[in-house]
Amino acid sequence: MEKNKLKHLIEILSIPTYFGMETLVQEYLIKYGTEKGYLVNKDTKGNIYFTKGSIKEKQYFPCVCAHIDSVFNEHIDLIKNNKRKDIRIGRGKHNKTKLMAFHPETGKRTGLAGDDLAGVFLCLQMLEHFDNLKAAFFVEEEYGCRGSNECDKTFFNNVGYVIQFDGPTSNWFTETLSGVKMYNDDFLTKVKPILEKYNVTNYSDDPYTDILPLKEKFDFCCCNLPTGYHNWHTNEEYVNFEQTEKCIQLGIDFINKLGYNKYQFDKAEFTSFFSNSYESYLKKYDKYMEQNPKFVCDICGSEMDEYFICTICGHNHLTK
Questions:
Q1: What does pTM read for this prediction?
Q2: Pick the residue with more confidence: 285 or 298?
Q3: Rounded mean pLDDT of 117-131?
Q4: What DSSP letter does each residue of the chain carry, written as one string?
Protein backbone atom coordinates (compact mmCIF):
# COMPACT_ATOMS: atom_id res chain seq x y z
CA MET A 1 0.00 0.00 0.00
CA GLU A 2 1.43 3.38 -1.03
CA LYS A 3 0.84 5.90 1.75
CA ASN A 4 1.10 8.98 -0.49
CA LYS A 5 -1.61 7.67 -2.78
CA LEU A 6 -3.80 6.78 0.18
CA LYS A 7 -3.35 10.27 1.58
CA HIS A 8 -4.24 11.80 -1.79
CA LEU A 9 -7.35 9.66 -2.14
CA ILE A 10 -8.51 10.57 1.38
CA GLU A 11 -7.98 14.26 0.58
CA ILE A 12 -10.24 13.99 -2.48
CA LEU A 13 -12.88 11.86 -0.76
CA SER A 14 -13.16 14.39 2.06
CA ILE A 15 -14.51 17.09 -0.30
CA PRO A 16 -18.32 17.36 -0.08
CA THR A 17 -20.19 17.61 -3.36
CA TYR A 18 -23.73 17.32 -4.64
CA PHE A 19 -25.55 17.43 -7.97
CA GLY A 20 -25.37 21.04 -9.18
CA MET A 21 -23.19 22.06 -6.21
CA GLU A 22 -19.73 20.87 -7.25
CA THR A 23 -17.93 24.13 -6.41
CA LEU A 24 -15.43 22.74 -3.89
CA VAL A 25 -14.30 19.95 -6.21
CA GLN A 26 -14.03 22.41 -9.10
CA GLU A 27 -11.85 24.71 -7.01
CA TYR A 28 -9.69 21.78 -5.91
CA LEU A 29 -9.16 20.59 -9.47
CA ILE A 30 -8.37 24.03 -10.87
CA LYS A 31 -5.78 24.60 -8.14
CA TYR A 32 -4.34 21.10 -8.55
CA GLY A 33 -4.08 21.28 -12.34
CA THR A 34 -2.60 24.77 -12.31
CA GLU A 35 0.06 23.78 -9.79
CA LYS A 36 0.94 20.74 -11.92
CA GLY A 37 1.38 22.93 -14.99
CA TYR A 38 -1.50 21.39 -16.95
CA LEU A 39 -3.58 23.42 -19.36
CA VAL A 40 -6.78 23.94 -17.35
CA ASN A 41 -10.13 25.06 -18.74
CA LYS A 42 -13.64 25.38 -17.36
CA ASP A 43 -16.62 25.54 -19.71
CA THR A 44 -19.86 27.46 -19.23
CA LYS A 45 -21.56 24.44 -17.69
CA GLY A 46 -18.83 24.03 -15.07
CA ASN A 47 -17.00 21.01 -16.47
CA ILE A 48 -13.23 21.05 -15.91
CA TYR A 49 -10.72 20.02 -18.59
CA PHE A 50 -7.00 19.22 -18.27
CA THR A 51 -4.50 18.83 -21.09
CA LYS A 52 -1.03 17.57 -20.29
CA GLY A 53 1.71 17.49 -22.93
CA SER A 54 1.25 17.36 -26.67
CA ILE A 55 0.90 14.87 -29.51
CA LYS A 56 2.63 14.40 -32.83
CA GLU A 57 1.07 14.63 -36.26
CA LYS A 58 -1.44 11.82 -36.90
CA GLN A 59 -1.58 11.00 -33.18
CA TYR A 60 -4.58 11.38 -30.87
CA PHE A 61 -4.81 12.04 -27.14
CA PRO A 62 -6.03 9.36 -24.81
CA CYS A 63 -8.65 10.92 -22.52
CA VAL A 64 -9.82 9.89 -19.07
CA CYS A 65 -12.90 11.21 -17.32
CA ALA A 66 -14.94 11.09 -14.11
CA HIS A 67 -17.88 13.00 -12.66
CA ILE A 68 -17.57 15.32 -9.69
CA ASP A 69 -21.10 15.39 -8.22
CA SER A 70 -22.87 13.02 -5.83
CA VAL A 71 -26.39 12.14 -4.66
CA PHE A 72 -25.88 13.21 -1.03
CA ASN A 73 -27.99 16.31 -0.38
CA GLU A 74 -27.12 16.07 3.33
CA HIS A 75 -23.75 17.52 2.34
CA ILE A 76 -25.21 20.82 1.10
CA ASP A 77 -24.48 22.62 4.39
CA LEU A 78 -20.92 21.28 4.35
CA ILE A 79 -20.48 22.69 0.86
CA LYS A 80 -21.90 26.07 1.82
CA ASN A 81 -19.67 26.26 4.92
CA ASN A 82 -16.58 24.85 3.16
CA LYS A 83 -16.25 21.96 5.59
CA ARG A 84 -14.84 18.51 4.92
CA LYS A 85 -16.14 15.03 5.59
CA ASP A 86 -14.26 13.01 8.17
CA ILE A 87 -12.68 10.08 6.32
CA ARG A 88 -11.79 7.15 8.54
CA ILE A 89 -9.82 4.01 7.80
CA GLY A 90 -11.24 0.66 8.78
CA ARG A 91 -10.57 -2.94 7.89
CA GLY A 92 -12.74 -5.01 5.63
CA LYS A 93 -12.60 -8.61 4.50
CA HIS A 94 -9.12 -10.11 4.31
CA ASN A 95 -7.80 -7.08 6.24
CA LYS A 96 -8.29 -4.74 3.27
CA THR A 97 -8.18 -0.98 3.76
CA LYS A 98 -11.72 0.37 3.94
CA LEU A 99 -12.33 4.13 3.62
CA MET A 100 -15.59 5.46 5.09
CA ALA A 101 -17.08 8.94 5.59
CA PHE A 102 -18.51 10.44 8.76
CA HIS A 103 -20.33 13.73 9.14
CA PRO A 104 -18.02 16.24 10.92
CA GLU A 105 -20.87 17.65 13.05
CA THR A 106 -23.03 14.65 13.91
CA GLY A 107 -20.28 12.04 13.89
CA LYS A 108 -22.63 9.67 12.06
CA ARG A 109 -21.76 7.61 9.00
CA THR A 110 -22.54 9.54 5.80
CA GLY A 111 -22.18 9.14 2.05
CA LEU A 112 -18.58 8.83 0.93
CA ALA A 113 -19.16 9.87 -2.72
CA GLY A 114 -16.55 7.35 -3.84
CA ASP A 115 -18.92 7.36 -6.79
CA ASP A 116 -17.24 9.16 -8.34
CA LEU A 117 -14.52 10.91 -6.35
CA ALA A 118 -12.54 7.67 -6.50
CA GLY A 119 -12.78 8.10 -10.28
CA VAL A 120 -11.42 11.64 -9.96
CA PHE A 121 -8.46 10.26 -8.01
CA LEU A 122 -7.82 7.63 -10.70
CA CYS A 123 -7.86 10.26 -13.45
CA LEU A 124 -5.27 12.29 -11.54
CA GLN A 125 -3.17 9.16 -11.14
CA MET A 126 -3.24 8.62 -14.91
CA LEU A 127 -2.06 12.20 -15.38
CA GLU A 128 0.82 11.53 -12.98
CA HIS A 129 1.89 8.51 -14.99
CA PHE A 130 1.56 9.72 -18.59
CA ASP A 131 3.27 12.69 -20.22
CA ASN A 132 0.57 13.29 -22.84
CA LEU A 133 -3.02 12.91 -21.71
CA LYS A 134 -6.35 14.70 -21.52
CA ALA A 135 -8.85 14.53 -18.67
CA ALA A 136 -12.44 15.73 -18.31
CA PHE A 137 -14.31 16.16 -15.03
CA PHE A 138 -18.06 16.46 -15.48
CA VAL A 139 -20.68 18.10 -13.29
CA GLU A 140 -24.26 16.87 -12.80
CA GLU A 141 -23.91 13.24 -13.85
CA GLU A 142 -26.07 11.61 -11.20
CA TYR A 143 -29.45 12.78 -12.46
CA GLY A 144 -29.07 12.76 -16.23
CA CYS A 145 -25.43 13.39 -17.29
CA ARG A 146 -26.16 17.07 -17.81
CA GLY A 147 -22.53 18.14 -17.65
CA SER A 148 -21.26 15.76 -20.31
CA ASN A 149 -24.35 16.46 -22.41
CA GLU A 150 -23.26 20.11 -22.54
CA CYS A 151 -19.51 19.49 -22.84
CA ASP A 152 -17.07 21.58 -24.86
CA LYS A 153 -16.95 19.63 -28.12
CA THR A 154 -13.71 21.27 -29.27
CA PHE A 155 -11.83 19.64 -26.37
CA PHE A 156 -12.47 16.24 -27.94
CA ASN A 157 -11.41 17.13 -31.51
CA ASN A 158 -8.04 15.37 -31.14
CA VAL A 159 -9.13 12.61 -28.74
CA GLY A 160 -8.76 9.00 -29.89
CA TYR A 161 -10.80 7.27 -27.15
CA VAL A 162 -12.20 7.98 -23.70
CA ILE A 163 -11.81 5.90 -20.54
CA GLN A 164 -14.21 6.74 -17.75
CA PHE A 165 -13.52 5.64 -14.19
CA ASP A 166 -16.99 5.18 -12.73
CA GLY A 167 -17.50 1.46 -12.09
CA PRO A 168 -17.86 -0.10 -8.62
CA THR A 169 -15.58 -2.76 -7.09
CA SER A 170 -12.54 -3.83 -9.14
CA ASN A 171 -14.47 -6.25 -11.33
CA TRP A 172 -16.55 -4.08 -13.65
CA PHE A 173 -16.36 -3.31 -17.36
CA THR A 174 -19.32 -1.54 -18.88
CA GLU A 175 -20.36 -3.14 -22.16
CA THR A 176 -23.48 -1.12 -22.90
CA LEU A 177 -25.21 1.92 -21.46
CA SER A 178 -28.99 2.03 -21.94
CA GLY A 179 -28.55 -0.60 -24.62
CA VAL A 180 -25.95 1.45 -26.50
CA LYS A 181 -22.61 -0.24 -27.14
CA MET A 182 -19.62 1.85 -26.13
CA TYR A 183 -16.90 0.20 -28.21
CA ASN A 184 -16.43 -2.03 -31.22
CA ASP A 185 -14.94 -5.52 -31.52
CA ASP A 186 -11.49 -4.25 -32.53
CA PHE A 187 -11.28 -2.17 -29.35
CA LEU A 188 -12.35 -5.13 -27.20
CA THR A 189 -9.78 -7.38 -28.89
CA LYS A 190 -7.07 -4.93 -27.84
CA VAL A 191 -8.06 -4.70 -24.19
CA LYS A 192 -9.48 -8.14 -23.46
CA PRO A 193 -6.10 -9.67 -22.48
CA ILE A 194 -5.71 -6.84 -19.96
CA LEU A 195 -9.15 -7.50 -18.50
CA GLU A 196 -8.25 -11.16 -18.17
CA LYS A 197 -4.92 -10.26 -16.53
CA TYR A 198 -6.74 -8.32 -13.80
CA ASN A 199 -9.57 -10.88 -13.53
CA VAL A 200 -12.22 -8.44 -14.74
CA THR A 201 -15.02 -10.79 -15.74
CA ASN A 202 -18.15 -8.72 -15.13
CA TYR A 203 -19.18 -7.21 -18.47
CA SER A 204 -22.00 -4.98 -17.32
CA ASP A 205 -25.09 -3.49 -18.97
CA ASP A 206 -25.63 -0.21 -17.12
CA PRO A 207 -28.16 2.65 -17.30
CA TYR A 208 -25.89 5.62 -17.90
CA THR A 209 -22.73 7.53 -17.12
CA ASP A 210 -20.93 10.36 -18.91
CA ILE A 211 -19.56 8.35 -21.82
CA LEU A 212 -23.14 7.77 -23.00
CA PRO A 213 -23.71 11.36 -24.20
CA LEU A 214 -20.10 11.40 -25.44
CA LYS A 215 -20.85 8.36 -27.58
CA GLU A 216 -23.77 10.24 -29.11
CA LYS A 217 -21.58 13.23 -29.98
CA PHE A 218 -18.29 11.67 -31.10
CA ASP A 219 -17.05 8.86 -33.35
CA PHE A 220 -14.54 7.22 -31.02
CA CYS A 221 -14.71 4.22 -28.69
CA CYS A 222 -15.40 4.70 -25.01
CA CYS A 223 -15.25 2.39 -21.99
CA ASN A 224 -15.95 2.52 -18.27
CA LEU A 225 -13.52 0.96 -15.79
CA PRO A 226 -13.89 0.15 -12.07
CA THR A 227 -12.70 2.35 -9.20
CA GLY A 228 -13.05 0.34 -6.00
CA TYR A 229 -16.15 1.90 -4.46
CA HIS A 230 -18.94 -0.21 -2.89
CA ASN A 231 -22.52 0.39 -1.67
CA TRP A 232 -22.74 3.53 -3.75
CA HIS A 233 -25.53 6.07 -3.14
CA THR A 234 -25.88 4.95 0.49
CA ASN A 235 -24.43 6.06 3.82
CA GLU A 236 -22.73 2.65 3.96
CA GLU A 237 -20.60 3.42 0.92
CA TYR A 238 -16.90 2.66 1.19
CA VAL A 239 -13.80 2.45 -0.98
CA ASN A 240 -11.52 -0.57 -0.88
CA PHE A 241 -8.13 1.07 -1.33
CA GLU A 242 -6.36 -2.08 -2.48
CA GLN A 243 -8.95 -2.44 -5.22
CA THR A 244 -8.43 1.20 -6.20
CA GLU A 245 -4.70 0.55 -6.44
CA LYS A 246 -5.46 -2.36 -8.76
CA CYS A 247 -7.59 -0.03 -10.89
CA ILE A 248 -4.62 2.34 -11.23
CA GLN A 249 -2.58 -0.41 -12.87
CA LEU A 250 -5.57 -1.48 -14.96
CA GLY A 251 -5.92 2.04 -16.35
CA ILE A 252 -2.20 2.35 -17.01
CA ASP A 253 -2.19 -0.92 -18.93
CA PHE A 254 -5.21 0.17 -20.97
CA ILE A 255 -3.56 3.41 -22.08
CA ASN A 256 -0.20 1.74 -22.74
CA LYS A 257 -1.94 -0.80 -24.98
CA LEU A 258 -4.26 1.61 -26.79
CA GLY A 259 -1.59 4.28 -27.25
CA TYR A 260 -2.03 7.50 -29.20
CA ASN A 261 -4.40 6.09 -31.79
CA LYS A 262 -7.99 6.78 -32.70
CA TYR A 263 -10.42 3.90 -32.31
CA GLN A 264 -13.15 4.82 -34.75
CA PHE A 265 -16.69 3.92 -33.80
CA ASP A 266 -19.72 5.61 -35.31
CA LYS A 267 -21.77 7.96 -33.19
CA ALA A 268 -24.51 6.21 -31.26
CA GLU A 269 -28.21 6.67 -31.81
CA PHE A 270 -30.15 6.28 -28.60
CA THR A 271 -32.97 3.83 -29.05
CA SER A 272 -34.04 2.75 -25.56
CA PHE A 273 -33.54 4.53 -22.25
CA PHE A 274 -33.17 7.97 -23.82
CA SER A 275 -35.99 7.55 -26.34
CA ASN A 276 -33.87 8.90 -29.22
CA SER A 277 -33.41 12.25 -27.49
CA TYR A 278 -31.24 13.04 -24.52
CA GLU A 279 -33.14 16.26 -23.96
CA SER A 280 -36.43 14.37 -23.81
CA TYR A 281 -34.95 12.19 -21.06
CA LEU A 282 -34.00 15.26 -19.02
CA LYS A 283 -37.49 16.69 -19.40
CA LYS A 284 -39.01 13.37 -18.34
CA TYR A 285 -36.72 13.31 -15.31
CA ASP A 286 -37.68 16.83 -14.19
CA LYS A 287 -41.40 16.15 -14.65
CA TYR A 288 -41.25 12.84 -12.82
CA MET A 289 -39.33 14.34 -9.90
CA GLU A 290 -42.15 16.86 -9.46
CA GLN A 291 -44.83 14.18 -9.62
CA ASN A 292 -43.10 11.48 -7.58
CA PRO A 293 -40.43 12.87 -5.22
CA LYS A 294 -40.65 9.80 -2.94
CA PHE A 295 -39.33 7.35 -5.57
CA VAL A 296 -42.34 5.00 -5.27
CA CYS A 297 -43.25 2.68 -8.13
CA ASP A 298 -46.56 3.46 -9.85
CA ILE A 299 -47.14 -0.22 -10.58
CA CYS A 300 -46.48 -2.08 -7.33
CA GLY A 301 -45.75 0.66 -4.78
CA SER A 302 -42.19 -0.54 -4.10
CA GLU A 303 -39.07 1.59 -3.87
CA MET A 304 -37.37 2.74 -7.09
CA ASP A 305 -33.65 3.01 -7.59
CA GLU A 306 -31.88 6.22 -8.63
CA TYR A 307 -32.62 5.49 -12.29
CA PHE A 308 -36.41 5.34 -11.65
CA ILE A 309 -36.46 1.58 -12.16
CA CYS A 310 -38.51 -0.38 -9.62
CA THR A 311 -36.35 -2.63 -7.45
CA ILE A 312 -39.14 -5.26 -7.31
CA CYS A 313 -41.09 -5.35 -10.59
CA GLY A 314 -38.42 -3.74 -12.79
CA HIS A 315 -40.70 -1.11 -14.36
CA ASN A 316 -38.78 1.81 -15.90
CA HIS A 317 -40.80 4.94 -15.18
CA LEU A 318 -38.94 7.17 -17.64
CA THR A 319 -39.73 5.09 -20.71
CA LYS A 320 -43.48 4.78 -20.26
A1: 0.85
A2: 298
A3: 98
A4: --HHHHHHHHHHHTS--BTTB-HHHHHHHHHHHHHHT-EEEE-TT--EEEEES---TT--EEEEEEE---S-GGGHHHHHTT---EEEEEE-GGG-EEEEEE-TTT--EE---HHHHHHHHHHHHHHHH-SSEEEEEESS-TTT-HHHHT--GGGGTTEEEEEEEEESSSS-EEEEETTEE-S-HHHHHHHHHHHHHTT---EEEES--THHHHHHH-SBEEEEEE-SEESTTSTT-EEEHHHHHHHHHHHHHHHHHHTT---B-PPP---STTTT-HHHHHHHHHHHHHH-TT-B-TTT-PBB-TTSBBTTT--BTT--
| Measured distance CA(11)–CA(22) in Å, rounded | 16
Tell me the average pLDDT of the chain. Answer: 89
Please write the tens of the pLDDT for every residue from 175-212. Answer: 999 889 999 999 999 999 999 999 999 999 899 999 99
- Euclidean distance between CA atoms 25 and 306, whole angstroms: 22
Please, which pLDDT band fits residue 300 given cuts at 50, 70 and 90?
Answer: confident
**For residue 116, cis peptide bond before it (omega within 30 degrees of 0):** yes
Q: How far apart are CA 74 and CA 102, in angstroms?
A: 12
Q: How many CB atoms lie within 10 A of CB 87?
A: 17
Centroid of chain to Cα 90: 24
CB 285, CB 291: distance < 8 Å = no
